[in-house]
Design a protein that fits this description.
single chain; 214 residues; alpha+beta; two-stranded antiparallel sheet; 5 helices; 10 strands
Length: 214
């Protein structure tokens, strides 16, 4: 399953937020281009009424899916993590990001191409790579499908100063077996960058400052 989160275990590993976001810098890149295009701009509500970021994994092998996202991040910096009942340390936990940390996270997701991810283009690219492997006699089989779901909601998003502003920005990213695809097709900058962004969110489930709330 993707990102080492298994139904039979869950470990809390100390992770420093500085380490999480150190690679973001102050500039953002387009997905998979490797070309600096300028600093992204965001506007979001700082209330705790609706998450601005949600992250979860759907394991298709499980009959009874837990509908609650693994991670919900609010504009006031509150982070709510939900560990399903079938995992070790099941329960709900919270901790808080500072506004600079939250903005650094958003910059990192923009840099990873998550906000500008072109689903149709990436799927076409993947099919072409699959066809090339099939023609070369290379076959892959994955028995357990894991779907990565990420939603980002902002009042306003601008990829860089030269790009147009998007009001009421709402990005829903979904991809089956993202980690496996990133490993199998490292030549795809879009898939690799998306996996980097998902991995960064997944690490936030292991923050040492989490406090159980229920």
């Amino acid at each position: 399953m993707s990102f080492a989160i298994q139904p039979h275990r869950f470990r809390l590993i100390p992770v420093l937020l500085i380490a999480l976001f150190a690679s973001t810098g102050v500039l953002a890149q387009g997905p998979g281009t490797g070309k600096v295009t300028g600093q992204p701009r965001f506007q979001f509500s700082t209330t705790a009424t609706q998450p601005i970021i949600e992250y979860t994994l759907v394991h298709r092998m499980l009959e009874n899916q837990d509908p609650v996202p693994l991670l919900r991040i609010y504009g006031d910096g509150r982070v709510h993590t939900h560990i399903p009942v079938y995992m070790k340390n099941a329960g709900d936990y919270e901790y808080r990001l500072s506004q600079p940390e939250l903005k650094a996270l958003l910059r990192s997701l923009s840099q990873d191409g998550m906000m500008d991810f072109d689903d149709a283009s990436a799927k076409t690219e993947k099919k072409q790579m699959e066809d090339q492997e099939r023609n070369a006699g290379v076959l892959h089989a994955i028995s357990d499908t894991t779907e990565t779901l990420i939603e980002i909601r902002l009042n306003e998003y601008q990829r860089n100063p030269a790009a147009g502003r998007i009001m009421g920005f709402n990005k829903r990213f979904t991809w089956d077996n993202l980690e496996q695809d990133a490993s199998q097709y490292p030549q795809s900058g879009a898939i690799k960058s998306a996996a980097d962004g998902a991995r960064r969110l997944h690490l936030m489930l292991e923050h040492p400052g989490m406090q159980r709330v229920k």
